[in-house]
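Q: I'm writing a short explainer about Kef-type K+ transport system, membrane component KefB for a general audience and would like to include a description of its predicted shape. Could you first generate the structure from this sequence?
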Amino acid sequence: MTFPIAAASDAANELGTLFIVLFAAKLGDELFRRLRQPAIVGEILAGVVVGPSLLGIVEPSRALDLFAELGVVFLLFWVGIETKLSELRAVGRAATLVGVLGVAVPLLGGFALGEALGESFATAVFLAAALVATSVGITSAVLVELGALARPGGRTILGAAVLDDILALLILAVAVGLVAEGDFDATGLVVTVVLSLAFVAFFALGGTRIARRWPQLLEAPRFAESPLLPAVLLCLGLAAFAAQIGLAAIVGAFLAGLIIAETKEKTPIEGEVAPLYAFLAPFFFVSIGVAVELDRLASLETLGLVVLVTLVAVATKFAGAWLGARSLGSKEATIVGVGMVPRGEVGIVVASIGLTERVIDQQLFGVIVAMSVLTTLIVPPLLRALLRGDRHHLEPVGAGG
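A: Of course. Here's the predicted structure. Afterward I'll give you a sentence or two in plain language.
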């Protein structure tokens, strides 16, 4: 059997990239832990250092994208395992308000900013869509690190994130449809939204009910020597299903975790999933840093635009989420408001679609990417400061979290 030299070389390059990314992530992790700062900030900045902006050792690649996707999938799977559906129901009203207002206020703010800057209608819509998005993976990692998932603010963020994702999907679909010059498919959009809502409702309610009725469910398959393999199959299956119907894969992974949390195998699975999370999550955080291209921000005009867009992004998301969560009390509402701020990879994806559709130019693309990274970097230290002194502190579970 022969193996093509070119294929072997490509595989070696990809493996080298993964090694450099993981090694850089751990260096950033180690440094920031010693500085008593959130580890994920060190991992994101490590991505900036090894990425195209500085050293240029690592470029975006299919392998890195795949590992980054697996990283955020297992992050939300872990978060789901640590969460009970009953806990989400307890903050259901607040989570709904946070999800709705946390989308509506940034949407209006982003559109108004686009209009004020003299952008076209379509460009203003895409800018608004980028400001709507929330990267719950970043906040979840900080909540895991600080052991704060169980507090009302943490549960509200998780519940709101699911609704936020559905609403952001709807807005992005409308934005793309408006750009498509008459090809907007209202029927397809309605079908997608209905499927998304049905998917969440079925697995959140039906899946957890089945798990409670048959808590030994993961012991049934004879092909598995431990409950981990059936659990991972459920995680990847629901993540893939969610992606197929237009939702983020992380929503499916989170729902899979909710189901696992109701089984009697929850505790051993926690122990077995933790190393997977610790290994894969750094690829997700480093990939955000790798996406940064500092040379696109070289002019004072562009830097000023970055500051303006970032301020609008932070203020509108915080205001909407805080208003939605104020029934939980001032401190919890502040935690929710800050926790919903990161745009992370979601904002970058929206910017990429806008660039592909030629609705935004290279300058605005760089501005949105910079805003996404900045909102991601500022949240972990702020959350740590807000939660300092509370008795919700656990040892970090893994790298980045």
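A: For your explainer, you could say: The CA atoms of residues 74 and 276 lie 7 Å apart.
Q: Perfect, that's easy to follow.
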